[in-house]
C-alpha cells in the first residue's frame, strides 16, 4: 500500500483548459465483456476485506464517548480574518500567542501570486485577499512587508479593493476604509414585511435571513472603528477608480438589474431619512426576532457570519461584553476555534450530525452489527438531539409537527432535509433488527419522516431548510452579488430523499417519489450529470441522484440513467480515481474533471455500483485506487476542498470525508460483487409490514 499518497495530478486553477485524464468512456456492453480481466492483488477479496476491516476499526475508534463523530470543517482565509475583525469591533484584546496562531492559519492558505484563494490550489480571490491583508495589517504587519507587497501588487492588478464583494465592503466601511454610501442599501423596515411579501426576511434562505437580520442593526448605526493610518489599507485602492464599478447597469433599459439599481437609490434615501417611529418599531421587532434564536449554545443560525453579526448587533444596541446574552454569543463563537500545534483554525460552523450520520452509514455498509455499542451510542445521541422547536420552516409548512435534525450540535430553528434524510436512512437499516431501539425511537423516526415529506416543494424537489424558497429574481438585487440568497430545490437533496423513500419500501409510483423523479429528469444536464449544490460538484450531484433512483426502484437500464453512468465512466482519471475541481461551478469544462480525491472517487464508485457496474474494469480500478492509497493508520489523506458552502463563493474541506466515504464505497463494492446488493437492502421488506407506516400513504 502507498503510505499517505494522494495521487493528485498537477494543480488546476483559473478558467483554463482542464487537465483530462479520463478513460475512453467505453459503452456499458463493452465494459461488461471486459469484466473478466485479471484483478490486481490489492483488490483481491482478502486484500479488500483487510482494507475494509482496518478502516472500520479506525472509524469505530474515533467515535466520541457520547456517540457522535466530528472533525474540523475548514474554509478559506475570510473566516479567521473576520474573527480578528470582530475582536477589534468589540474591543476584546486577543492573547498575543493566540493571535499569532490565527495569523499563521491565514498565512498557511496563501496561494499563487501571493494572494488568497477560496479553496486549496484555487485562483486568487480579491475579497479573500483584501480581508486577509487588512487582518495582517491590524495585527502589526507593515505595508512594506514582502508578504503584503506581493498581495498588494496582485490586488492592484485586479483593479484595487473597490472591486470586492458586498460583505467585504461592509467590513471595510466599519473600519473607515470604504464609504457606507457605496454599500448596497438594506432598510431595517424589511423585517416588518409580511412573510408572503417577496422582499420579506422569509423570502430568502435561512443562512441569508440569519445574516441579514443582525446586519440591519449595523446598517442602521453604521459603526466606525477608527484605525490608525499604519493599520489601514488605503494603498489597496486604485486612485483612478477607488470604488471599482460595483453597480454597473446591464444592457437595455427595462431589466431586473437596472430596476433593482433604481430601487437601491430609493432605499439609500429612505435609510438617510426613515420615519423615526417606524425605524424604532423595526429595530425592536428585529431584536425580538433575534433573541429567541440566540438561545442555547449554538449561536444565531450556528454559522459564523450570523453569529458574529449578532454579537455586533447586540453591542450596538447597548449590550456590554459581560452581559449574559453577549457572553453566550461570544462563547458560541469561541467554540468554533480549533487549535492545532502551530495554528488556530476558525471554523465557519461544525458538522457533527452530518458526520455522525455518514460515519454510521459507512459502518453499517461495512458490516457493523446493529447490536454494537457503537450503534447504541449513536442512536441515543441522535435521540437527544431531535429538533422539537417550531422553526422558520413552519412559515411554509404550518401544519407539520417539528422533527428531524440540524447540521450542527444545536440549531433548533433550522433543521435541514439533507441531515434528516441521512440520519433516517441509517435508522431504517438498524431498527428492523433492534426491537428495543424501535420502541425507543419510533416517535423520533416517525416525526422526522413526516417532516421531510412536508418539506417537498411544489416543483417536486427538496431544498435544504425551507420549502419553495425559490424567488430567483431576488438574486439580482445589488446586495446579492454572491448569488446565493435563496434555497431552491436541488438535485442532490432530492436524490437523498428518494434514497430514504426507497429504504422505507416506497417505489417510483408513490406520489411524492413520482413528483421527485419528474423534477430530476428536468434537472439533468445535457451530458447526463446532475448539478451538486452541496458538494463538488457534478460527481456529487450524480452520485446523490443515482443512489436515490436505484433505491426507489427506477430501472438502471433507463436511457437517461445510462447517460449518467456514461458521464462518470468518461471522467475516470488515468490513476483509477475521480476528482472534480471547484472551478466546475464557473465552467462546465471542469465538470467531473480534476485531481483524484478519495471522497470524489468514492462518490463515483457508489453511483456506478448502484448503476450495475460492479463487475466492470472501471469500478475495479476505482477500488484499487482507494485500496492503494490507504494510510498505515487505516484511513486516507485528502487536502483538496470537495464540499460546497456557496457555489463560486465559499467552499469547504470536510476533514471527515476522507475517512467514511472511501470505506462506504469499498464496502458497497464488496457487498455488490459478493451478494449482489447493498447490506441492509433486505430490511426494506420490514418497513412494508411495520406496525405503523413511517410516512402517511396519502401524502
Summed up:
The chain is an all-alpha fold and 699 residues long. The protein contains 24 helices and five strands. A three-stranded antiparallel sheet has the order 1-5-4, with no helix packed on it. A two-stranded antiparallel ribbon has the order 2-3.
General description of the model:
α8 (206-221) runs parallel beside α11, α15 runs parallel beside α17 and α21 packs antiparallel against α22 (617-628). The protein is mainly alpha-helical and 699 residues long. The chain has helices spanning 28-33, 45-61, 78-90, 96-108, 126-138, 146-157, 166-174, 206-221, 256-272, 276-290, 304-316, 324-334, 352-365, 373-384, 417-430, 435-454, 491-503, 511-523, 538-552, 559-570, 598-610, 617-628, 657-675, 684-688; strands spanning 73-74, 337-339, 344-346, 643-646, 650-654. Residues 1-43 have low confidence and may be disordered.
Regarding CATH, which class of the largest domain?
A: Mainly Alpha
Category from helices, strands and their pairing: mainly alpha
Beta strand %:
under 5%
How many H/I helices? 24
Low-confidence stretches: 1-43
State the domain count.
2
Give Rg in angstroms: 25 Å
Amino acid at each position: 500500500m502507498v503510505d499517505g499518497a494522494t495521487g493528485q495530478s498537477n494543480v488546476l486553477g483559473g478558467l483554463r483548459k482542464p487537465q483530462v485524464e479520463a478513460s475512453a468512456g467505453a459503452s456499458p456492453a463493452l465494459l461488461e465483456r471486459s469484466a473478466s480481466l485479471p484483478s490486481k492483488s490489492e483488490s483481491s477479496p482478502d486484500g479488500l476485506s483487510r482494507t475494509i476491516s482496518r478502516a472500520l476499526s479506525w472509524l469505530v475508534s474515533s467515535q466520541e464517548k457520547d456517540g457522535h463523530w466530528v472533525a474540523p470543517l475548514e474554509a478559506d482565509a475570510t473566516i479567521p480574518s473576520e474573527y480578528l475583525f470582530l475582536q477589534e469591533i468589540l474591543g476584546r484584546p486577543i492573547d498575543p500567542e493566540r493571535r499569532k496562531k490565527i495569523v499563521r492559519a491565514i498565512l498557511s492558505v496563501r496561494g499563487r501570486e501571493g494572494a488568497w484563494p477560496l479553496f486549496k490550489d484555487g485562483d486568487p480571490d480579491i475579497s479573500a485577499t483584501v480581508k486577509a491583508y487588512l487582518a495582517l495589517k491590524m495585527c502589526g504587519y507593515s505595508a512594506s512587508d514582502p508578504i503584503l507587497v506581493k498581495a498588494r501588487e496582485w490586488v492592484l492588478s485586479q483593479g484595487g479593493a473597490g472591486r470586492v464583494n458586498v460583505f467585504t465592503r461592509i467590513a471595510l466601511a466599519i473600519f473607515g476604509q470604504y464609504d457606507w454610501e457605496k454599500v448596497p442599501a438594506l432598510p431595517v423596515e424589511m423585517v416588518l414585511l409580511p412573510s408572503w411579501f417577496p422582499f420579506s426576511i422569509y423570502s430568502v434562505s435561512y443562512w441569508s435571513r440569519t445574516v441579514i437580520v443582525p446586519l440591519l442593526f449595523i446598517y442602521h448605526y453604521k459603526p466606525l472603528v477608527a484605525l490608525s493610518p499604519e493599520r489601514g489599507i488605503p494603498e489597496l485602492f486604485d486612485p483612478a477608480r477607488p470604488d471599482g464599478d460595483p453597480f454597473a447597469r446591464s444592457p437595455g433599459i427595462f431589466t431586473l438589474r437596472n430596476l433593482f439599481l433604481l430601487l437601491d437609490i430609493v432605499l439609500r434615501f429612505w435609510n438617510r431619512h426613515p420615519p423615526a417611529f417606524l425605524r424604532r418599531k423595526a429595530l425592536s421587532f428585529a431584536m425580538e426576532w433575534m433573541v429567541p434564536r440566540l438561545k442555547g449554545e449554538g449561536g444565531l443560525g450556528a454559522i459564523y457570519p450570523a453569529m458574529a453579526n449578532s454579537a455586533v448587533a447586540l453591542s450596538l444596541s447597548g449590550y456590554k461584553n459581560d452581559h449574559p446574552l453577549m457572553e453566550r454569543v461570544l462563547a458560541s463563537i469561541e467554540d468554533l476555534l480549533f487549535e492545532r500545534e502551530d495554528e488556530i483554525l476558525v471554523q465557519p460552523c461544525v458538522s457533527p450530525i452530518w458526520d455522525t450520520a455518514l460515519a454510521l452509514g459507512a459502518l453499517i455498509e461495512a458490516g457493523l452489527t446493529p447490536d454494537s455499542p457503537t450503534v447504541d451510542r449513536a442512536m441515543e445521541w441522535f435521540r437527544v438531539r431531535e429538533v422539537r422547536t417550531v422553526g422558520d420552516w413552519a412559515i411554509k409548512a404550518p401544519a407539520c409537527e417539528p422533527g428531524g435534525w440540524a447540521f450542527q450540535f444545536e440549531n433548533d430553528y433550522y433543521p435541514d432535509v439533507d441531515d434528516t434524510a441521512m440520519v433516517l436512512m441509517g435508522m431504517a437499516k438498524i431498527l428492523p433488527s433492534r426491537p428495543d431501539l424501535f420502541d425507543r425511537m419510533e416517535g423520533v423516526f416517525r416525526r422526522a419522516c413526516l417532516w421531510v415529506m412536508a418539506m417537498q416543494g411544489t416543483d417536486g424537489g427538496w431544498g435544504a431548510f425551507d420549502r419553495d424558497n425559490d424567488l430567483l429574481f431576488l438574486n439580482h438585487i445589488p446586495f446579492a452579488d454572491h448569488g446565493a440568497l435563496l434555497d431552491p430545490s436541488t438535485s442532490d437533496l432530492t436524490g437523498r430523499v428518494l434514497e430514504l423513500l426507497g429504504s422505507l419500501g416506497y417505489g417510483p409510483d408513490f406520489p411524492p417519489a413520482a413528483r421527485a423523479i419528474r423534477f430530476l429528469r428536468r434537472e439533468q444536464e445535457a451530458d447526463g450529470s446532475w448539478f451538486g449544490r452541496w458538494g463538488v460538484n457534478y460527481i456529487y450531484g450524480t452520485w446523490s441522484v443515482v443512489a436515490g433512483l436505484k433505491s426507489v426502484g427506477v430501472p438502471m437500464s433507463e436511457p437517461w440513467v445510462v447517460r449518467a453512468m456514461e458521464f462518470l465512466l468518461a471522467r475516470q482519471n488515468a490513476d483509477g480515481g475521480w476528482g472534480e475541481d471547484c472551478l466546475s461551478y464557473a465552467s462546465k469544462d471542469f465538470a467531473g474533471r480534476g485531481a483524484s480525491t478519495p471522497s470524489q472517487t468514492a462518490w463515483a464508485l457508489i453511483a456506478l455500483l448502484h448503476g450495475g457496474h460492479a463487475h466492470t474494469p472501471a469500478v475495479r480500478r476505482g477500488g484499487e485506487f482507494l485500496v492503494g492509497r490507504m494510510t498505515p493508520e487505516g484511513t486516507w489523506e485528502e487536502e483538496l476542498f470537495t464540499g460546497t458552502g456557496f457555489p463560486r463563493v465559499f467552499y469547504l474541506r470536510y476533514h471527515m470525508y476522507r475517512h467514511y466515504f472511501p470505506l462506504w464505497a469499498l464496502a458497497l463494492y464488496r457487498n455488490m460483487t459478493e451478494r449482489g446488493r447493498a447490506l441492509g437492502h433486505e430490511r426494506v421488506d420490514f418497513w412494508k409490514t411495520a406496525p405503523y407506516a413511517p410516512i402517511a400513504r396519502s401524502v
